Amino acid sequence: MPTPIDIDDKLNELESRLEATKAQLRDLATMGAVITSIQEINAVLSVVMDMAIRLVDGEVGLIMLEENNQLRVKISWGVNEEFVRSLMYQDGMDLPSYCFQARQTVILNDLGIKDENGLSIESIICLPIQTADTCHGVLMAINKAEGNSYDEEDKEILEMLLNFVAVAIDNSTLIKDKLKQQKVAQEMAIARQIQETILPQDIDSITGVEIGAVYFPAREVGGDFYDILKLDDMRFMVVIGDVSNKGVPAALVMSAASGIISSLLSANPEIAVSELAERLNDLLANEIIKDREMFVTLFFAKFDLESSCLTYCNAGHLPGLFWDAEKQEISELPVGGPIVGQFAGTRFKQGERNLASGDRLFLFTDGLTEAADADNNLFSRERVEQVFTAEVGLPPKDFCLKVKEWVDRFAQGSSEETHDDFTILQVKVK
After folding, report:
1. Is residue 289 part of a domain?
2. Does one domain contain both 199 and 279?
């Protein structure tokens, strides 16, 4: 029968262990608050490694996190990755990989292993860093102080700690994603502001014609732009273009192209549209566009109402469509040259058409022809010509809105990802 002294000793031992456990839980609660408040994940891992080693009286250890479907060492105290990768466990996997894949804690004692540096390995505990949905990595502690073995109590303590770590990693990821989204939103707002300053606000000041022009934006800001530039009372220039990019880079190139065109026309209103394309191309290629993947497509159309003549240059853009009111037929305006902004020194040609009352010029960007329906069929150039023929009697402004109705009906049920921005412009000779 135990003596009163034995019972007192056991009670004192239990009380001491209870106090130690309570203190450990208080420490864990404090540690959890600290861990989840740190937003920089590398700082979190340094704190956690220190806490983990102290909580279970470990000697050395490391933390590995998943990156691009591979475990990579992020924190290493006294042990290298090569050694832990040499610890083969089950199913042909090393210990950290097994722990990560199986999402199971592994405790190994009485190992009697020595690494290449002479470190004696007697005990290991390896735990997954996980939430209910995701395993982020593993933590490994090696050798318990004074030759002791790791046990279930060590496992429970470290699992509590790693719950906080997993939450901290999730929080860090969410914050990074949110900051990335905010950056994208800010860039899109800047791009829209640039675009809005470029697009002409008043297109009704040109006498002798009716003009309709509408830009229909998509979720992302594209590189569409257009301009109507009055040269004198009887002449004006219409330009429509598309930069092969989105967001701020496209908006900046768009702005540069628009500014160069205005500057060249102000300096020389008599400039031919082919020469205008050549000068713009050289300036963009030599001074502005440094990215080999970025370029501009443009269509230039110069109206001379006094001589009833239209001269045009198609620089890598979709050919404009011309409605001959007398013949009641559509023809393409393909003459010009390649894209603008990549090949300095390129020569461009210009085409010419006579103008008469009722004639119309219809210009558009590729977002119109590439609009997709629910089965991923494209609106296509054939449908564009069909719309032009069917709705040619409308005033230009109403015509532009009617085209959008055709596209909306066609694209009904398609995903938002298939929608690109597009610009349409029509000029009718009175």
Report:
1. yes
2. yes
